[in-house]
Amino acid sequence: MEQKGPALQEPLSSQGGGSAVIDMENMDDTSGSSFEDMGELHQRLREEEVDADAAAAEEEDGEFLGMKGFKGQLSRQVADQMWQAGKRQASRAFSLYANIDILRPYFDVEPAQVRSRLLESMIPIKMVNFPQKIAGELYGPLMLVFTLVAILLHGMKTSDTIIREGTLMGTAIGTCFGYWLGVSSFIYFLAYLCNAQITMLQMLALLGYGLFGHCIVLFITYNIHLHALFYLFWLLLGGLSTLRMVAVLVSRTVGPTQRLLLCGTLAALHMLFLLYLHFAYHKVVEGILDTLEGPNIPPMQRVPRDIPAALPAARLPATVLNATAKAVAVTLQSH
Amino acid sequence: MRSRIREFDSSTLNESVQNTIMRDLKAVGKKFMHVLYPRKSNTLLRDWDLWGPLILCVTLALMLQRGSVDSEKDGGPQFAEVFVIVWFGAVTITLNSKLLGGNISFFQSLCVLGYCILPLTVAMLVCRLVLLAEPGPINFMVRLFVVIVMFAWSIIASTAFLADSQPPNRKALAVYPVFLFYFVISWMILTFTP
């Protein structure tokens, strides 16, 4: 007689202790909250009781009714088997899609390795005759994308602006992940056209580590608001990380036209992205500010809003001055 | 067998609602204490539950709502935004720590990360009170100091619970996304203006 336990036994997770299936069915072995335990126990006992009753009833039926009882038993068994088969299939499908073991090898890194790869991402290596090695891991790139999102959000704060953080948070996450995944896919597609030897994972890793330069530049320039400094860092740090990626791609591509196409596209996208992140977010911020402060000005009275608020520290007195000017205008209007 | 069923019936199913709620509230309260005074202990991991994180997340999301009447887009999206960021951030960190080789269960990790938002919720309360005073640089410095202290507290608390589940040489790799997660929440708290 088959044991009807509350949860299906997981054959996958019992092999080789490091399986990482998201074990939502079994909850976990060590404990659950008191609800689940009591509930499970109760359920199991009730099921056993029902089974015992059903078995007793079946026996009685079979003896008394003869043929009819037998048919009833058969149909019950068939239904039971179908239920078991369906349950098995569903759990197999679930464990297939929820099995994050597929990604496990890409996260097999040590902190020292991540550190050295971060530093190497800023050092272009001029070896173009032999394909350069690319580390195929996803931990570093993923963390760099999240760091870039955090830096973008921090940049909003140091601009000292009153923003609806919801919109910009979604935009920041969408921009960073969109760039990483979208540009990687696009360059991988171009690489496929140009016969370059690079896999999708390697492209993701390469571009992800290339964002390290972006993170540094944005972190510094969001705190020190000097455009000249930004341009210097843009060329220097942005350029170094782009050169590294370009060198790797050149070493893996044959033919001058293909090299030019692939590396030119990547260099342009990478440098322009840094430019976009620095300037577009300022513009987006100022645009939202204009939209927020616009309706407060009465239509006929053009109150001059040219009180310079170039430095963030000056924004508070500027806002106060603006408010005073508006109050004066309203008072004049009422007279 | 029947007597056993009756015994279990009477213990949980037939008890009054007040008993059930009080028992769960006590469990949640005990875990709050463990977060506020973090020691290396197994309590949060052994008896995980998601009530505490839900209460904290909803409280934080409600307090972070702008509630301004002049802009019709505010209000709803902010609640959803905070909710989504907290829960998806926690799921991402959990997946990351599992992929790095940690032997912690999915819901245990969610439980720990959710409970360690408690110091930041306290920071939110303090910031709201401070914002009732007049605005200025001192106001901002006080809020910045409170948020930084609570941010550090959150990280120390979550590290105390999660660190043991990681292989010893990869603790830094697992702690870094936790740092980013609480940083984003602290940023939301600090930049909040009613």
From TrEMBL, chain A:
Keywords: Cell membrane, Cytoplasm, Differentiation, Glycoprotein, Golgi apparatus, Membrane, Transmembrane, Transmembrane helix. It comes from the Eukaryota. Residues 48-60 have a biased composition (Acidic residues). InterPro entries: tRNA_Mod/Golgi_Maint. It is a multi-pass membrane protein. Its main location: membrane. Residues 1-60 are annotated as: Disordered. The chain crosses the membrane at residues 138-156, 168-191, 203-222, 228-248, 260-281. It is found in: Cell membrane; Cytoplasm; Golgi apparatus, cis-Golgi network membrane. Involved in the maintenance of the Golgi structure. May play a role in hematopoiesis. Belongs to the YIP1 family. This is Protein YIPF3. It comes from Equus przewalskii (Przewalski's horse).
From TrEMBL, chain B:
It comes from the Eukaryota. Belongs to the YIP1 family. It is a multi-pass membrane protein. PANTHER family: GOLGI MEMBRANE PROTEIN YIP1, PROTEIN YIPF6. The chain crosses the membrane at residues 48-67, 79-100, 112-132, 138-161, 173-192. InterPro entries: Yip1/4-like, Yip1_dom. It is found in: Golgi apparatus membrane; Membrane. This is Protein YIPF. Residues 35-188 form the Yip1 domain. Its main location: Golgi.
